[in-house]
Design goal:
Layout lengths: L2 E4 L9 H11 L9 E5 L6 E5 L13 H5 L5 E4 L2 H8 L1
Antiparallel strand pairs: 1-4, 2-3
């Protein structure tokens, strides 16, 4: 399946990923219940993320909604190399 890769340099901290994740998980916009949490330090501009264990990578959607909705391309789906190596054997 892979994992979600984050690029802090491209993120503006808009939290769209957090909103769409909460919609996927709860059926409503409830950022506190999202699998992904985004915070931006207003003084330094540093953006921090965390993705918790409730993330199912939007299996029913075909592609993670956070990745799909990130207009800055700060989130990407990356294949797990270990899984790919096992499939080749």
């Amino acid at each position: 399946m892979g994992h979600i890769s984050r690029n802090s340099a491209l993120c503006y901290g808009c939290k769209i990923c957090q909103l769409v994740c909460s919609l996927h998980l709860t059926g409503s916009f409830w950022p506190e219940r999202s699998s992904i949490q985004v915070s931006r330090n207003p003084q330094t501009g540093v953006v921090r993320w965390s993705i918790d264990k409730t993330c199912d990578r939007c299996r029913r959607e075909g592609e993670p909604l956070c990745v799909k909705s990130c207009s800055y391309e700060a989130l990407k789906m990356v294949a797990d190399e270990k899984l790919e190596e096992r499939e080749r054997e």
